[in-house]
Predict the 3D structure of the following.
Amino acid sequence: MITVLIADDQELIRESLELLISSDSRFQVVGTAKDGRQVVEMALRLRPNVILMDIRMPEINGIECVRLIKQQDCSIKIIMLTTFDDDQYVYDAVKNCADGFLLKGISKSDLLSSIVTVHSGGTSVDPQTAQKIFSLFGRLANSPFCTLQESDEQFKSLSSQELRIMQLIGKGYSNKEIMQDVNFSEGTVRNYISNILKKLDLRDRTQIAIFAIQSGLMLKNLESMDV
């Protein structure tokens, strides 16, 4: 059973989420929190598998909550609940290792499947938020103030197919879209992604996307690279 902690300052949303999640026997809601101080205390006391965390929380905002909780127990998975105007918050949440991003108003089936995905070690990001993440890090990568070092050395262990798949992930492609682009089976695409994660010591496809953007890979012509 997956244990879930819900954090939102709106009582109606807390109660609705609790009712929705509790209706499925795969999950147990172990608590609800109405502000940031409460969710940090409850997270470290109850050690839930997954936290649904509102980005904008009173007392301590959701971003700082992620940082404080992850510092103490990085095994706790945290899904941020966002709205359309949370661009800077989303960027900060990525930096603090949030595990997923969902828009409020998501369907029941998508919410529950996202909790399962994140609990199993994956990342769940709704398409609108994914687009924001890629856009934000794209602007960062092209900023004149960016101090990230760009070197072909970090790509030496990767095949041309793996680099191509990284570029597609960086563009926000799903596995199905990658399959169509590179003409591989879904299993082959999954294997390539697994190899990329191992070679670069990354956690999930969101980190692959961020790495692809920050390293300058998105700007490279793979045909000119010595791989």
Summary: The longest helix spans residues 127-141.
